[in-house]
Write a structure and sequence with these properties.
- It comes from Flavobacterium piscisymbiosum.
- This is Lipoprotein.
- By secondary structure, this protein is of the alpha+beta class.
- It has a single domain (22-132), classed as GMP Synthetase, Chain A, domain 3, CATH 3.30.300.250.
- The protein has helices at residues 2-20, 24-38, 73-92, 98-102, 128-132, and strands at residues 47-55, 60-67, 106-112, 118-124.
- The protein is elongated, with a radius of gyration of 20 Å.
Length: 134
């Protein structure tokens, strides 16, 4: 009798777990909503604003980091070293979840000059995340 109750309980628990699991597209939407709602509190050198935009059909999230830097060669050099460090820190803090990357979501991250032109673009996917975390 107890064995039967345990089997039924286990089956119900398993069904609840399966129903409550989110797929990658749902996690993508949830991430973008959460990121944008907490973006006002984001702090990083030279960053004035950050936003996320999700592309469900492309399994992609675009992260934009607007800065107060002018578009010039010295700022590009500076951004080429500081931006990967910022992204690595965000991954380590789970602000960019490895779980999403492992599920096939790609992050296109843009470090923008004060005129909204691109200083640096980084793509974070299954292949590049290993190199970025070194």
């Amino acid at each position: 009798m107890i064995k039967r109750i345990v089997q039924i309980s286990f089956t119900i628990a398993l069904l609840i777990l399966l129903v409550s699991c989110k797929n990658a597209k749902q996690k993508l939407q949830e991430y973008v909503t959460t990121y944008n709602s907490t973006a006002a509190g984001f702090k990083a050198d030279d960053v004035t604003l950050t936003t996320a935009r999700g592309y469900i059909n492309d399994d992609k999230i675009e992260l934009r980091f607007e800065t107060n830097l002018e578009q010039n060669e010295s700022n590009k050099v500076k951004a080429n070293t500081s931006f990967p460090k910022l992204l690595k820190e965000m991954i380590n803090k789970n602000e960019i979840p490895k779980e999403l990357v492992e599920e096939g979501i790609q992050f296109d991250a843009y470090f923008l000059a004060s005129d909204n032109t691109v200083l640096v673009k980084e793509i974070i996917n299954k292949e590049s995340i290993k190199e970025l975390l070194q």
